[in-house]
Amino acid sequence: MGVEGDSNAMAEQIEAAEMDALRDRYRNGSPQERSKIKALLGPVEVEFADIKMVVDPRDNYTETRMWLDGCPPELKSLVAVVELVEDRNVLVMDIGANCGAFTIPLALACGTGSRVIAFEPNPIMIGRLGVNIQLNGLTDVIRIEGCALSDREGEARLNFCGHNYGQASLNDVKAGMRNGAIVVPTRPLGHFTAASKDHDFTLIKIDVEGAEETVLGPILEGAQSGGWLPDAILIEVRHADEWQTDLCEQILASGFKETMRAEGNALYLKKK
Fold first, then answer.
1. Is residue 247's pLDDT more than 90?
2. Options 3.50.50.60, 3.40.50.150, 3.20.20.10, 3.30.750.24; which CATH number does 75-270 get?
3. Is pLDDT of 29 > 50?
4. What is the dihedral of CA 21, 26, 29, 34, to 10 degrees?
């Protein structure tokens, strides 16, 4: 390595040390200091398990945690579903794909012939998701659907919450927390389920900030008369108190068993 190479390596080491110091300050800092640190940041590349992702810690909790910890925050849930799809011909429907914290690892883990459909209505997050898809060479595996899933085709208002794009929801946001909104297209999940016929296993991962029953309700109701069901569902249950029905009980009644509950998620596998 020449002088120029030595200088570049040293600069990278200094930059990494400075970033580590910022992370330590952020972990131990007050809310005011954390806001100041976020203002200094921009997109940062993180690497875990041979996966590279660019994250922006400034305005999204998931990306903030990935910047701090070097890996996605819901790691136990992620590992559980990665093990389900590993080396299999699967269809994954990631509903609420965010920056790709689940989308990218699942797409890398699944086998030949697999397809991942990443549903993400927020144009800003669609851009970040696209960057991470290209960074990992997954443009032939992952398809982005820039819509919100709902119980009907049309459009709806996507409400932003605070300074966290990951909490955007079709549901109303609490007074004082709403930070703008945009109108996005909506589609029923049933419009996309026919693709499962080309795969051996179908996984739904859904995290839509309390609107889960609007997405899954029609599918579960249709299953009562012999309609389609996936093989596995990973669903966020943090907002279960916002549901009008007991969606978890509906999933169990549709022939699933709960195999894990962790990190605000529940994992269900269809009984054989």
1. yes
2. 3.40.50.150
3. yes
4. 130
